[in-house]
Amino acid sequence: MSTRAESSADSEERALDLVFDVLQARCPSRPVLEHVTGRWGTLIMMALLEGPVRFNELRRRVDGVSEKMLSQGLQALERDGSVVREVQSTMPPRVEYQLTPLGKEIAERLKDLVRFLESRMPEIEGLQARYDQAAAA
């Protein structure tokens, strides 16, 4: 094995030994978590769980998202490896977005959280009302 290959192998091994800690300010997992769990990231991923979709259809599915925020969210998720953008060579060109295998795994975990929150909303709304009453007193 050449010195360069050994160096590369050593670097890869050291990278695998790194411990990522999202609570640390400089941890590279923190922006990825933000992309996935931010308001639009989670909603985009939930919509993409249904399968490949074009931009405007995705915009209709994610009610309230602006074109700019949808575009930024898709780009961030694509950069992180959760979403893939596929351009089909038709006239006019057709662009679809879909989850990668990693993105599907993340989205399934998010879906569990979303379903849990939806099922507990009556309790949460009651707790919010009680908090608001106490804060107003």
Please describe the structure with a list of short key phrases separated by commas or semicolons.
65% helix; Arc Repressor Mutant, subunit A; mainly alpha; 7 helices; 3-stranded antiparallel beta sheet
Summed up, what is this model?
The protein has seven helices and three strands; from the N terminus they run H-H-H-E-H-H-E-E-H-H.
The CATH topology annotation of the largest domain reads as Arc Repressor Mutant, subunit A
Portion in beta strands: 5-15%
Largest sheet, if any?
3 strands, antiparallel
- Taking the alpha carbons of the first and last residues, their distance comes to 73 Å
> Strand sequence of the main sheet, in spatial order?
1-3-2
CATH architecture of the largest domain: Orthogonal Bundle
3D shape: globular
Supply the helix-strand structural class.
Answer: mainly alpha
Counting structural domains, the number is 2
Protein name: Helix-turn-helix transcriptional regulator
Keywords: DNA-binding, Transcription, Transcription regulation
Pfam family, one: HxlR
